[in-house]
Structures are given as structure tokens and as C-alpha cells.
Design a protein that fits this description.
The protein has about 950 residues and is mainly beta. It contains eleven helices and 48 strands. A five-stranded antiparallel sheet has the order 36-41-46-43-44, with no helix packed on it. It has a four-stranded antiparallel sheet with strand order 4-5-6-7, with no helix packed on it.
Amino acid sequence: MSVLALALVAPLASAALTDPSDPAAPTPADRVTDTSQLPSGWQKSGDRIVTYDGDGTGLHVLVADAADAYKWHTAATLSEPGVDTDQWIGQTCVTGSGDRAVVVYAPRQAVNDQQGFQQGAFAAVVDLADGTVTKLPELVSLAYFNPGCGDGEQAVLTRPQGDDTQLLTVDARKGQLVRQQTVAGQLTSAVPFGNEIAAARGDAVVSVDAKGATSTLARTGGTPFRLVPDAHSGLAYQVPAGTQVQVRRVTSAGSDRLLGSGALGALAVHGTGGRVFVTGKDAEAAVKDSALPKSWRTLDVPASAEVSTTGGLALTSVGNGTEAAGGRKAAADIARSVGIGAVLPGSDSTVDFTVKPRISQKSQGAEQSPALSDGVHTDSVSATSAAADDASTSTTDPDRACAVTRNDPKLQSLQPSTAQAEWATDLAVQGKLDVRRRSGWNGSELPSYTPQGLFPSTPLKGGGRVPAQIMLGVLSQESNLLQAGSRAAAGESSNFIQGGYYGNAGSVHTVNWAAADCGYGISQVTSGMAKADTTYTAEQQQALTVDYAANIAAGLQILQDKWNQLYDKGLLVNGGDPQYLENWWLALWAYNSGLNLPSSTDASAPWGLGWFNNPANGLYPADRKMFLSSGYDDARNPNLWTYPERVLGWAAYSQQKTDPATGATVRAFTVGDWPTGNAPDAQPAHDTFCKPTVNDCDITKPRKVEGSSQPEGPCQRDDFKCWWNQPVSWTDCKATCGTEVLKYAVTDPEPKAAAPHPAACTSTLPANALIVDDVPNTVKFRVGAANPCAGERNWVSRGSLTFTFGSAQQNGATVYPSKIDFHQLGAGFGGHFWLTHTRVPSYTDSVVTGTWTPDRKVVGSAEVMVHLPDHEANTPSATYRVDLGDGTIVEKTISQNTGGRNAWVSLGSYAFKGTPSVSLSSATADGTGDASIAWDALAFVPSKG
């Protein structure tokens, strides 16, 4: 898969923005307004706090300095052009000087795919003073410990490489990778340490020299994590020990000592520039200050807090209120306000901030990463297409690898509301999703069908059925409850939400059909959706593309098949009663990463559920709690949890949505019910699926596999095939496990969703206007079964809009990267328009040009009117080229921003002398990939007289 196939401490009081409409809640400032709370001398303090938050516009790197009363500003916003996501995620670390941040960032979808997680994140260095962004030329891991900064200006990035680990050393001052090393085995938590690299490997802290040779600094009773160098040749780290965690320090000479211990999750180590902070409400009692080395301090703040460079401020919550909302993508230049909660260590003072990220048009944060400069190519790319469907001019992709094309106006996906998604799920799990879709539903050419007529519910072996909250959790994690692209609001149609349709690994300049991952819609149905796959009929493939209900029925069928497959192998959880949510743990594991089947020739060969989603994997922090149990801030970093953990978290806490009636933030769907009232009570321990006799995994007693290059550690195989293949039990489900709560009965009708951008159905132009729409008259505008323009359409299109698409030669074939960022939306004039984003003319492979041509001559004076939609059209530099019919070209440049209105805008009056045409190109002198440019209807209005 590609990137696009590609988130014991009490819950924190959060300043994240959850109810911005509450008039009783004043908006916090972006700085400390009562400076009496600050310690004396703050005006000269060098303390700095750096954090981040992501939305659809990018990952925002936010900075505040004590000398400015911790006034927040945006250092940079990082994204990649053409990547369709509703949320960017990632992590940062700050170099020893405090002047630079090293950032790892990726679209949210990357966590759903093993390759995307381990080798699909981008990396950059951000200058915190002037905002300069230097993107690095390698893709890296999204693991929680990436990146790792030292006490100087270097940092380490990691990524798995087969059975080994690649360590990439960054000189942040130069903005360069200065060393790449490959080390045997799985290394985690790597950081610069003196002239070498320190990392965790198995049950040891190891040092890696410049040649890649390793030596052991300390042996531990478990897998070390969260390594932080101090200023005196020492290294802070943590080690889990059952339900406890140790805080330890090892020196470069190998002297190792215990400094304190506490409940797992109650203590943490942080640090920057050689300073080490031990955080936790009981940190002072657990780790006596008198025993601490120089440059170490305890801070009486929550263990999970983010700490400033000198410990003057600790952040307890960061969020924009939409990380768990699954909402529509924000406009390209509008970032979500971020709420930040903080405490001033050593006092009882708390501070709340509100920060509005600013996206600088001069920033390099939106430029394409050099990690994608060459794209991902393969010799097996084929670009053949039928002559009747020319890929250079067709909006569709006749040369595609996936079954259903993008940008076909007759195959648009209807975006459901969260109520519709829950309704379809509730009915589907009961086997009653039999709503009748009439012929032509949502403007398609499909015959009449019912969702579970096309995708019947599969009976579970052993009886029972899938709980609704399990399926809702899957939908939340796979797509954020989106069937269409994130630009479409509920009740609006667009292209389907794509996985890795173009196989482009995030690049807007590469089309690699051989690497395509054909994930479709709200369930991200992939199996059966390749063009050459005959698992589904063409009718089924199209239905699950346009209809969220059919897609949910298909996704449910896949999940049921995973349960049955595991049932046949005896892989049951807690006795195997499917009514309990936790008992779906293994089926969710298989839904995401599959089941490795037993060998037919070698009975001793490993088989089972893969190591990537095993909670014991060192890719995930050992002291993490249940996903979302500490608050919705967890959704900033879904990469800290395995796939089953994330799904169960959504099932227990739901996504969020804004109630349109009150403006309040509420749960998006009904959550499950736990007998103790506390979902974490039923969660398995992280080592539940780690047994020496089952899958060569042992956290408490690591051992060496004879003849293996893999060092001691939880997974003792050098091929990482510590695959789980046994039934498991960790709780009495009657006492602790969650069960389903249904909101909708099988007789409840489908909820309605009113699109916030109604189409302009009626022409307000004079009756003699010659209108050329952006789609043929044969395209039917429908929202589900309804025709919003019924009885209102008073016009007929008299001509056509045609396109030419920028191309590139890749691996001996002509491909069209310009289509990657080309989209359709069911709004605007007549209920349809096209859009892309502007780029400078030198990006020839990204340029799209549309030309309106009427079906007749125009002779004499006529005014040219262009219709602009009320959203997703904001370029200030739309240059229209008007051909007067005799080859004379006149140019007119306008802004497409109408202030949120559907509007006809004049391009001027001209004397026409034949069949005219008007062209609009996405190439603009100011194009940065941010401003959207749209093609809707155009008209020629003859002048009076």
C-alpha cells in the first residue's frame, strides 16, 4: 500500500476547542495576559515551548517564548500538495539550542497501513525563528519515538528496513542527512548520544557507532523506551516492569542506576538540550530530587504533559476540537483554531490559550518533499486505453488499475451524515439494511437494488452477530465516517474517498498504477476492487462506490468473514461470545493486516496474526492507556496505538460532531455499554499476545534465538514472524466487557442530510443566454433519490466543456499526474462543478485546462458570464482566455472568491465573429498548490440592440 492507503493518569481537563459557540465561555488569549503568574525575570528568560496540531490544511508547528509572555505563533505548517486528507498527524522534537524543530508528519490514513506507518512519513527541519522549512529526502516511520533529538543540533530518524532498522542522522543546523546506517534487528527510541546513537534493542540500551557497530550500555528487565540524553554524558530512559515503570540513567561508560519507580503511566521522562524532566503528579515522591543528577528536575505536572525547554511551562492539552470529528476538510487557507491548556510548574497556576495558526504563502511547508521527487516507479506500469476514451482529455482514468474510475459525473459518492452512517450500521448488523435504492440513485446508472441484497450479511460461525459499535469503530478508523472525499459535506456528492488509487505514495507528480491500492469509501473496501478482479460484479463495485449504505454492507461482510476465518482456526477471545466488544480483538487485527495462513508443507512454520498490530511491539509506547480514555487529544497521535486499540477506543468514546441546533460538540454516534462504566477495565495488557511458547515473544524474559541476527527482545525472531495463533482470555466478559447499544430500530427510516451548499438550479440570466454547463445534459443531478432541482431548472446546456490534462513520461508510458488533484463536487450551477489547485506554469504535469465551447456561432456583441460556486473556488488569479471566434484572443483575470455565494460574474462584452470558446488554466504565476480554481457553467449573453 501507499501512504494514501493510504491516531493510570486521570483524564486531563482540556482546553481543546470543543464548544466555540458557547457565549458564556470567553475565548482565551494567545498569551499569558496576567503576567503576575509568571516567575520573576520572565522577560529575559530563554524558555521556549514547541507543540503541534494537525487539521486538513497541514501539521502546524506552534511556538511560544517566555520572554513574550508565551505568546504563540506559527513557525510552519507542513503538508504535501495533492494529498487528500482531513487531518495531518505527526511528532516533533526540539534541538539543543531550542532554535530548530525536527518534524515527522503524514496524513492520518497512513496509520491504517503497515507500510504507510513504517515507511510513509515525511520529515523536515523547521527554523523556529524565521519559519524556514527544509524537507528531508527520505520517508521514515510514524512510530511515537520518531524523531529523536540529542543535546546538540543533531537528531535521529528511524525506519524499518526488512528485518533491520535504518538510522538516519540529521544535522538540523544544515538541514541535511549526514549519515545513514543499517543495524540488525528492531531498534526503537533512537537519539544522538555523544558521537554515537543510543537506542533500545530488546532488553538492552545499546550504542551504535559511526560504522554501525553496536555495544550494550545496559541490560534491562524489559524493553527500554523514551530515551533522553542529559548534559553530563548520561541517558535517561524508562523500563516497564509489570504494572510499574522504572526511571533509570545510564552513562556512556555503562554505569546504570535506578532513580525511581511508579505506576505505569504515572511517570515519564522528557527533555531538551541536555535538561531532563521527570513528570508525574507523584514524581517528587517517586524520584527524590536529592538523588537526581545535575540537569535533572522533577515536575509536579501530569506525566503526559509536554514540557518547555527549561521547564517553565507544561502543556496538559492541545487540540482544535476536530481531531476526532471526522469532519469536512477546511478550506485550503483556513486553519482550525487550537486550544491549549497549560500549567506553570511549581505553582498552582493554570493557563489556557487559543492559537489561530497562520499559513504563510511564502512558507516552504506546502512544497513537495524531495522524498517524493523521483516518485515510485515500476516497469510494469501500463497506460493503454481505448481510442474512444482518450486519457489526455477524459476526466476519468481509462488507464487505471482500480475498478471504478474517479471523476465520472455519473458515479459520484454521496457523503453521509454521522446519523446516516450510524443508521446504516445499526440496520446492517441486524441484517435489515434493505432500504430500496431506485434506479438511477444519486445520479448513477445503476438499476434498483438494496444494500444487503447486493452484499448479504454472512452468519457468524458459533452464532451471534457483529456489535454495532465494533463496525462504527472500524468506519471511524478507516475513513473518519466519510464515503466521499473530505471536501464534500454531508448531503453533498463528490469522488469517493480514495486510498492509494494512483499508487503515487503521496506525490502529485507520480502515477504508478502497478502500486495502486484500491480502497473505496467509508469502509475502505479494497478486496475485489481492482479492475482485473472479478470477486464483485460491476454493479456491486459501482454501488459500494456511490452508496455509503452499500459500502457499509460490504465492509460488514468482510469483517464477518474475518471472524469466521479465525473461528475455523480456533482463534477465539474470552470464550468467543461475539456480543462482547473486546472479543472482536483478533478479528479487527485480521481486518487490518490479515491472517498469515499455516504452511501446507511445513507444519513448524509460523502462522497467525502479524507482529505489526501486536500491542507488545516496541513501535507503541509501553505506558499508553486505552485510546481516547485520557481525552480526545489522543486523536492527535493515533499512531501510538495498534489498530484494534483504536477501534475499541472509538467504540467506547465515539467521534465528535457539532450539533447544528446548539453548536455544541457532542458524540457523533452511540457508544457501547460497559458494566463497570469504565471501558479500560476490559482492555488486555500489552503483553497478552506475547508468549514464548506461542509466538517466540517474551517481554519479561527475553532470550536469544540461536543463530538469529535478531537481538534479545520481545520478538525473538530475526524475521519478526512472532505471529499470534492461539485462543486467548484475559477477562471475565460478563463482569467487564462492553456490549452493543443500538440507536436505530430496523423500522426506522433513513435520516435526511441537508447539504450546506445547495445547488443553483435556476438561471437568473436573460432567456436568450447561451449557457454551456460543465457536464452534459445527460448527467442527472440527484442527492440520493431526490432531485433538488425538480421543477426549477429553466435552462439547457448548449455546448460542452472539454479538458486537457498535464502529462508525464514515466517508465516508458504516458501518465497524467494532473488528475491526482482534480475533483468534482455536486454543488454550484446545476449541481456540479470541477476543481483543482493552482500551480506555477513550470509544473506542466500538474496543469489542467478547461475550454467551454457553445454548439453554435455567436455573431455580434455578447457578454461572457462565468458561474462561480459558493465554495472551493478562491484563487485571486483566474485568467480566462476568450477566443472571439476568428482566432483573436482576449484575456481577463478575476478572483474566483465570491464571498460564499453562487454567483454569475462578468468577464466583459466582446464582438464575436464565429464559434467562440473560453479557456481557463490552473497554471498561475502565484500558484502554490493551495488556492482552488473551479470550472462551472459559462454563458454568452447577447447584447441588446
